[in-house]
Design goal:
Blueprint lengths: L1 H4 L6 E8 L2 E10 L2 E11 L9 H14 L6 E5 L6 E7 L7 H12 L7 E9 L5 E9 H13 L3 E6 L1 H9 L6 E7 L2 E8 L2 E8 L3 E4 L2 E4 L1 H13 L3 H6 L2 E6 L1 H17 L3 E3 L21 H10 L15 H9 L2 H55 L8 H12 L6 E8 L4 E8 L2 H12 L4 E10 L4 E9 L7
Helix pairs in contact: 2-4, 5-9, 6-8
Length: 479
């Protein structure tokens, strides 16, 4: 995200290495799969870029760059090792999303600055026993801001601020693994310990480096003591796998340091090496074999090959619109915007869910549509021909009700039954006596679905001839 907000990377950049008033630089251009060094230079300023006369120092820098015919504006800067604070913290068993918050709390506890006053990058490594650690490297935000302002005053565009030691160590190591790297250049010695795919320690050693008539002189005894203390502070399982010591830097200094430390390193279980060329394939671009590795060159090559990684202390640039919004927007407006954005996101998600459901239902409908059309056709046919079919079996039901009320001993018998479409029923027959007929008629009147029972005719006495009628209620209880 940080690099996305910054200007899109070009194919050329000015690599700078800042050390007090000294500024070493290299102009690198990338062409296809190779890199070319257009120009190298070294500038000694009379004023500090970060001091009260930073404007005058920026003007002097611009004049020196014009003198060396440097027309490139994008610059990637190696920060002084003395600016960097480092701390390594063992990580407890936490979800990945909670690790940054845990490291923020550790940084607030350990560093002598408030978190908002620091620009931090992080490197994670894993011990052989499986333990996870996080190393935090921090630079004072004030120094970053002053340096960026000075470079822009010199008409340069900063695109990356990094530390040279980790970058050049990765570029020189043929097989990166756990080990100690010492970087020496003039008066500064930096120490870095790598383990488990990350940086386990990064610090500046307070060892004196002097340059006399007979060449550089380094207090290797004091440096050996510092090296032993640094290794003793490592986790035990990490210390066991640290078996290599790499010495890098200017040849006149690195050779003296490697020679003086070789025997002391051997007593610490470290094999000393002094690489002088970039390892093949480590930079992702071919460089001339006679080019000596330097921090500014390595940073420039990393930048043009898009392999800088997370070791970038340059804060993301904020656009004018973002500045305007942050200046004039109130907290209430910000909360309102956040709520509105959340509601909009929820609405969009609901519409997406609805669309997915509609697509699934349409797919299911396509599968059952032929059967539905067939059933609809059947229903139309049933509706059309239903009047021709009487599923209630009315006539049989009427006859059943009559048969149920007539006595089984034959005291009352029916001779004829007439059924009409209106539900009117007329029945005639003979009865042994009037008492049997009356009992049968009472039972008929109490029968469901039968109403309005009336006697039309009675003749004779024994046998008694009768005719009665009643109304069949079609909505009555059916059998």
């Amino acid at each position: 995200m940080k690099h996305w907000l910054q200007k899109k990377r070009g194919t050329s950049v000015l690599g700078l290495s800042l050390d007090g008033l000294r500024l070493d630089g290299v102009w690198v251009r990338r062409t296809n799969g190779s890199a070319q060094v257009a120009r190298t230079f070294s500038i000694i300023l009379t004023k500090d870029l970060l001091g009260p006369e930073g404007g005058a120092a920026a003007l002097e820098l611009r004049q020196q760059l014009d003198k060396h015919e440097i027309r490139e504006r994008q610059c990637a800067v190696c920060l002084p090792m003395s600016w960097v604070l480092g701390v390594s913290t063992p990580l407890p068993e936490l979800p990945e999303e909670d690790v940054p918050e845990f490291l923020d709390l550790e940084a607030e506890r350990v560093f002598p600055y408030a978190p908002e006053d620091l620009v931090m990058v992080r490197s994670h490594f894993q011990t052989p026993s499986g333990g996870k650690h996080g190393t935090q490297l921090a630079v004072a935000r004030e120094n970053i801001q002053k340096l960026e302002l000075a470079l822009r005053s010199a008409r340069l565009v900063p695109v990356a601020f990094s530390v040279g030691l980790p970058l050049i160590d990765q570029a020189l190591a043929t097989q990166p693994n756990s080990g100690v790297t010492l970087s020496v250049d003039r008066c500064v010695i930096g120490l870095m310990v790598t383990a488990g795919g990350g940086i386990a320690a990064l610090r500046t050693l307070a060892t004196a480096v002097e340059v006399g008539e007979n060449g550089p002189k380094i207090d290797t005894e004091s440096l050996g003591r510092e090296l032993r203390i640094s290794l003793g502070q490592l986790p035990p399982d990490v210390r066991e796998v640290v078996t290599q010591l790499r010495v890098i830097g200017s040849r006149q200094f690195a050779d003296v340091l490697a020679t003086g430390l070789k025997s002391r390193a051997a007593t610490l279980g470290l094999a000393t090496e002094c690489p002088t060329r970039y390892a093949p394939g480590r930079l992702g671009v071919s460089v001339p074999g006679d080019i000596a590795p330097t921090p500014e060159l390595t940073l420039a090559l990393r930048y043009v090959t898009r392999s800088l990684g997370d070791l970038d202390f340059l804060p993301p640039r904020i656009s004018g619109w973002q500045t305007l919004v942050s200046k004039y927007s109130s907290r209430k407006l910000a909360y309102t915007a956040m709520v509105a954005g959340a509601l909009a996101a929820v609405t969009v998600c609901l519409f997406l869910v609805q669309q997915v459901q509609l697509m699934r239902l349409e797919s299911q409908w396509k599968e059952i549509a032929p059967k539905v059309r067939e059933i609809d056709e059947f229903r139309l046919q049933i509706k059309r021909f239903r009047p021709w079919y009487d599923e209630s079996f009315r006539n049989l039901s009427i006859l059943k009700r009559l048969a149920e009320v007539f006595p089984e001993d034959g005291a009352v018998t029916a001779k004829s039954v007439e059924l009409q479409e209106t539900g009117a029923v007329s029945c005639s027959g003979t009865a042994r006596d009037s008492e049997s007929l009356t009992k049968m008629l009472d039972q008929l009147r109490s029968t469901p679905s039968i109403g309005e029972v009336q006697v039309d005719q009675l003749r004779g006495r024994a046998p008694l001839q009768f005719t009665f009628n009643f109304q069949w209620a079609s909505n009555g209880r059916q059998p």
